[in-house]
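Look at one such:
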Amino acid sequence: MGMDTVIVSVVSIALILVVAYSFAMETNNLITSAHSGFSNLQKLTLKKIKTNIEIQNILWNVSGNNYLRFSVANTGDTKLSNFELWDVVVVRNNSTLYLSYGSDWIVDSISNDSINPNILDPFESAQIEVRIPFESGESVIIRVSTPNGVVATQRYNVG
């Protein structure tokens, strides 16, 4: 009875230690993963806080083609680029139009674009042309959003 009890006790204690070690390692992995996720969320939030855009100077029929042209001013502290990832949405006649970059809208130019070419730096403005014809008297809502979720909206009466 003596040696059997010792062997069973040693195996039981070893099994308890292995299970406890497994729990400790999984807890460590869980804490590391949670910390990494929280850090990424904090970085994204700070980037979003430092980003701000405004829609300004909406014009219609500038080139005689009934298109809308407007400026998007970077009034925040974050450089903005990758215009193909931006969303431009127009609401007209109670219908929402999700516009595609390159075919429905383009970035025509960036004012004072001398520091970083083709990047919308703080205090610069991008001239955007919506290549869909509009008629005089229409009321439209223009919404522009950046890849990190910052949105600017402006209402405009065409004409």
